[in-house]
Amino acid sequence: MSVEVIMQYFVDYGAIAIFVIVLLEYLNLPGFPAGVIMPLAGIWASRGGLNFPVTMLVTVAAGLLGSIILYGLGRGGGELFLNRYYKHFPKHRQVIEERMNYLREKGSVGIFVSKLIPMVRTLISIPAGVIKMNFRNYLISSALGVAVWNLIFVGAGYLFGDKVLAMLL
After folding, report:
1. Which DSSP symbol is given to 159?
2. Cα separations (Å) of 17 from 8, 23, 58, 63, 95?
3. Of 39-48, 63-72, 138-147, 156-165, which range is least confident?
């Protein structure tokens, strides 16, 4: 999906487009990189599409919903998936188990920090569900991590607008 197409979705559908595209990005679907989506939302806000606080609210709500969905998938069927995965890729078991132990040890801090690391930030929700992390703690640490991540990228688009757009094109 090109930058122009995404911006046109924002123009045509407003906050709904931002919400849906950010939700898809947080579900880790291909073609929706945060490094493009979030600054574009900020650029659109700087051009008067939405005000900045509303843009942040929309992107954080979408990111949090995506995180909750992945947490639910991990909690509901993660162990079954992992067992099948281990059968096909037994050498990966140790690395995955280490990451799950990291979450068990670090808890909410581990979720918050993980939400600030590219790629890990979207996928960490699944192991959090698999280990059945306390949902309230997961929700709070995810919300904080999502808010910080989105603030950095949406804020960059908002503050540096056309300079960011020139880099993305």
Report:
1. H
2. 10, 10, 10, 13, 37
3. 156-165
Q: How confident is the model at residue 169 (pLDDT cuts 50, 70, 90)?
A: low
pLDDT of residue 17: 87
- DSSP state letter for 19: H
> Which residue type does 167 have?
M
Report how far residue 90's alpha carbon sits from residue 94's, in angstroms, rounded to the nearest whole number: 8
Is residue 66 within 8 A of residue 122, CB to CB? The reply is yes
Ordered by start, the domain boundaries in the chain are 3-168
Tell me if 49 sits within 8 A of 9, measured CB to CB: no
CA pseudo-torsion sign 33, 36, 40, 41:
positive
Q: Hunting for tokens 């197409």 — which residue is that?
A: 5
User: Residues near 145 by Cβ (< 8 Å), separated by ≥ 6?
Assistant: 111, 112, 113, 114, 115, 116, 121
Rg (the chain; Cα; Å): 17
Instruction: Note whether 55 and 108 are within 8 A (CB).
Output: no
Token pair recorded at residue 109: 């801090």
50 sits in which H/E element: none
Give dist(CA 18, CA 36) in Å, integer: 12
Task: Compute the CA torsion angle 82, 87, 88, 92 (nearest 10 deg).
Answer: 60
Give the pLDDT confidence score for residue 135 in this predicted structure: 97
